[in-house]
Specification:
By secondary structure, this protein is α+β, with helices and mostly antiparallel strands. It is built from 2 helices and 9 strands, in the order αββββαβββββ.
Length: about 140
Amino acid sequence: MTVEEKIEDALFARVATLELTPALPVAFPNLDFPGKAEGGSPRPKPATYLGVQHFPNRNVRIVIKGSGPHLRQGILQLTVVAELNTGHAVATKAAGEVAAHFPADLLLEIEDVQVRITQAPSIAGALRSDGSWDVPVSIQYECFA
């Protein structure tokens, strides 16, 4: 397994342990969401859910030896996608719960790789789209590997 896979697996595993009140379905990258019903017909997209995106940044060489560890940084962005015209409270509450689940200095480990959350997550202002009220939560991380 590559370092990049391990970083993403560690981040996504933490997302999978997130318990929101009320619970929200999670849309992980490049997976069929919300999936299909038993008969094979597509399920309707839920009015409110949590979208997951991963934005790795460029690597930084920190030692002279090229095969040595590099600083690998990025952002895990979780977006609360809420139904329009239901007020701000549902999305704001869920965004706060997401941020609390990823505190500064949280250490996530998978095999020989450690991923550290570098600061308190940033909750952006809500964005209104044609069909939803979106509140992005950006979680910055770093890894030396």
